[in-house]
Design brief:
Blueprint: E1 2-6, H1 8-15, H2 22-31, E2 34-39, H3 40-53, H4 57-70, E3 75-78, H5 82-94, H6 102-114, E4 118-120, H7 124-133, E5 140-142
Parallel strand pairs: 1-2, 1-4, 2-3, 4-5
Helix pairs in contact: 1-2, 1-3, 3-4, 5-6
């Protein structure tokens, strides 16, 4: 069974009907044949963005949390380890001139540790930066439906 680790952009787009990636994200996340890995920092970033930047955001945040806490699903919420945080800090320092922040770096660090090569993102800047510094090779960027 394949595991897909998800960046916040995919989750945000799947709950924000105004996002240009909304329909594609719904299709991808709904059709993924495997486990969807959600790093805890991604969940926090997603909830904060929905609540503060999307119309009806508090209701969308509540719906996301309901899905994640009360319904069986093919997802797993993962906490970063101290080693993940150290690797994320290393990545942020390596790419200090680039817009790679803690959450993106944590996604990459966790993918490396768990050997998850499929990363779902709509963030094209993440692709170019992460591929250059990742310890995983090859990474597969799941940008659209198969």
């Amino acid at each position: 069974m394949n595991t897909l680790i998800c960046d916040s952009g995919r989750l945000i787009a799947s709950y924000n009907v105004a996002d240009r990636h909304h329909a594609a994200c719904i299709r991808l996340l709904g059709s993924w044949q495997g486990t969807l890995a959600l790093p805890e920092p991604v969940l926090g970033e997603t909830c904060g963005f929905l609540r503060n930047h999307v119309r009806n955001g508090p209701a969308l945040e509540a719906r996301l949390l309901d899905v994640l806490t009360s319904r069986p699903g093919n997802f797993e919420i993962l906490d970063p380890t101290p080693a993940d945080r150290e690797r994320a800090a290393e990545l942020v320092s390596q790419l200090v001139a680039a817009p790679l922040g803690y959450v993106d770096a944590t996604v990459l660090a966790m993918a490396e540790r768990l050997k998850i090569v499929d990363i779902a993102t709509v963030d094209f800047k993440f692709l170019g930066m992460a591929s250059q510094v990742s310890r995983l090779s090859p990474l597969r960027w799941v940008l659209q439906e198969n």
